[in-house]
Amino acid sequence: MMLRRKTLAMLAALSLAAGAAACGDTDDPSPTPLPDAGEDVGPDAELDTDPNPDVEEDVDVDPDPDADVDPDPIVAPTPGDLVITELMKQPTEVAAFEGQWVELLNTSDAELELEGCALGSSSLDEAVVIGESLTVESGGYLTLAASANAGFDADFILEGLVLAEGEGSVSLDCDGTTITEVVYDAGESYPSVAGASLSRDPAFNGATDDSGDYWCAATAAYNGADLGTPGAVNPSCIEGPDASAAIADLLLNGPGDDGKLIEGATVTYVRPMVGVDDAGFFVQSRPEGPALFVAVAEGEEMPVEVNDVVSFLATSVVSNGGATWVDGFESLTVDASNGDRDALVTDLTAATDLITSLNSYTHRIVSASMTISGDLLTFAGPGHQAYPVATEGVAEGAQLRMATELRQAFGLESGCEIDLSMTPLWRFEETAQFMVYDATEIDVSECPELSVVSATSTSATQVELVLTRALGPILADGSQFTIEGLTVTGAVVDGPKVILTTEEQTSAAEYTVELDDSLTDIFGATIAADASATFTGFVALELVISEVMARFTGGNGDPGEFIELYNPGTEDFDLSGCLLKRDSSSSNEMEIDAGVIVPAGGYTLFASSANAGASLTVAQELGFGLNNGSMIYWIECAGEVLDEIATPGPQLGRSFQKDVNRLVTPNPAGSYSTDVWCFTPGAEGDEYVVHINANDEAELKFGTPGTANLACD
């Protein structure tokens, strides 16, 4: 790379020197002297034969000296007056016959008229003639496109224009004279990248010759994935490593058999693994993109940090939901740690093309101001929740997608105004998704008033409050919470929840907890003066949903899915005729067979297949598939719901289980307590079966089906 930069710099210097020599530039600043009177100035010099030069002759005088005079007439171009500075031979967003174009620069001091000139190429038998007046001002650019569907507003549509997509040539001829010409190859010395124009370095716009060293592949997006700067000044080709063209080529053509080398890309964001979304990092080289997500395999250490400048070989890509990203790479090096992420951020607040140009925005680091425009969406992928949002530029088609626990902590709702900074733009099909994984990336204002969602007794001396969003600082002694007939002795904030410690409650008694109006939410807004909620004194569960495996291998209805029930009582529990349910659909419920019991102090297993793994004893096969997203499951006997649990999005190969020491604690309505429920750790010894998948690969599965649960740390 250094050799090429030095070569370009030397060529630029030689080009400027040659131009100066052609203009007669010398070191002597003195004017050229006029010839003496009577000096022979050449055989063709005209002699003044007027015998009386002092006698005034009749001359025509303009009666209106203020009449308009065109000091700079429009002229026909001569060789060198116009230079081909850019050409798109291989567009990818549209077909070549629609998206090919050529850019010309007027390097002369005059406005030029191109009517009658013809643009020819090696793919045309006859050059295409410009059949009407078409001018380009001094120093201006002119774009000639094959169609109006080229992806930008071209200056002139030159129907019949065809450029060679491999090696070829293009020229402009006026009055039988070639004004400018480029003869390019298929990548040997000239750039040849699908989706990227050939871009001439501005340092060589004045050169009278042409060379592949003057050109590079464009890196700025103008039409989705296509790169170029039609009608604008080209960027320099000698700015150093630029990963944009390589990223664009990778997204379009894949890594090929030998992989695709990405050099000099800046890490803009590091994403944790959430739900089934891979951990990884985003890279970008220019504000206008393109950008790329690189997944890091589960269990692998994150190899980069934000603002690292990295190079790596992309070996495989995956496409899903309209996006493409790297899921295999090698030879990663951190070349520097002085990248400038701030300089790469695009503010999308006013972008009216956010949805129509989603290809060009995907995975870029962005900022935006927006308003939540609707209720929480029913599904946004495991481990995530999302709201529809509107920006100044678009009213629909965009979402705010957040990690579930972060969303719950903020307690956002319709009408909240949001400012995002430094976040990657994801997509699902044609929906733009602003992603948030860290509280520092989001600033919230103008939300509806904080309120209490529910109160639930989780033990004989503990009450869990759920609010619409997290509280600010509270008094640890619980004095800001009042329960008539029950003394509150402590309070702890846990996201949008408050855990109250009380004296021993009367079982099944009705209580009301009132919140002091001095409490504020995390944004500093006060709570409603009458904020309160009722709950029932603790009643221990008599039957418990104790464990759920919702994602054994991959899709819904996996062979190893299961639901486990636990009986905390001292007598067997007869499940005959009870209903095991998933969500509210009658098609997702199963009547339990006669004679099925849960032994006293024991567990009973319901699985999607009789051979759910190892030598498990399955009481009855499930009559419905479990869900790969967040879901509510419950057990109902004789019309009474004995237990229910709202699970988060599942983790692959790990069950979601209840703490062995908290099995009789009721679950909050429509939720779960993070200190009571957890995913089975993936530690050695916690696996219960080795599953051989369809690719004949061994997969460890973690859980405790049919046996005692673990403690959630």
Please supply descriptive tags for the structure shown above.
Immunoglobulin-like, mainly beta, 5 domains, elongated, 6-stranded mixed sheet, OB fold (Dihydrolipoamide Acetyltransferase, E2P), 35% strand, 47 strands, 713 residues, disordered N terminus
Write up what this structure looks like:
- This protein is mainly β and 713 residues long.
- The protein folds into five domains: 82-227, Immunoglobulin-like, CATH 2.60.40; 244-343; 345-445, OB fold (Dihydrolipoamide Acetyltransferase, E2P); 452-536, Immunoglobulin-like, CATH 2.60.40.1220; 544-702, Immunoglobulin-like, CATH 2.60.40.1260.
- It is built from five helices and 47 strands.
- A six-stranded mixed β-sheet has the order 8-7-2-1-11-12, with no helix packed on it. The protein has a six-stranded mixed β-sheet with strand order 41-40-35-34-44-45, with no helix packed on it.
- A hairpin with a 2-residue loop joins strand 42 and strand 43.
- The model is unreliable at 1-63 (pLDDT under 50).
CATH superfamily of the largest domain: Lamin Tail domain
Count the E strands.
47
Report the helical percentage: under 10%
End-to-end C-alpha gap: 53 Å
Output the structural class: mainly beta
CATH architecture annotation of the largest domain: Sandwich
Give the mean pLDDT. 85
Q: How much strand?
A: 35-45%
- What's the main sheet like? 6 strands, mixed
Give the count of helical stretches.
Answer: 5
Order of strands side by side in the largest beta sheet? Answer: 8-7-2-1-11-12
Q: Provide the gyration radius in Å.
A: 37 Å
Signal peptide: 1-20
Region (Disordered): 19-74
InterPro entries: Lamin_tail_dom (IPR001322), Lamin_tail_dom_sf (IPR036415)
Keywords: Signal
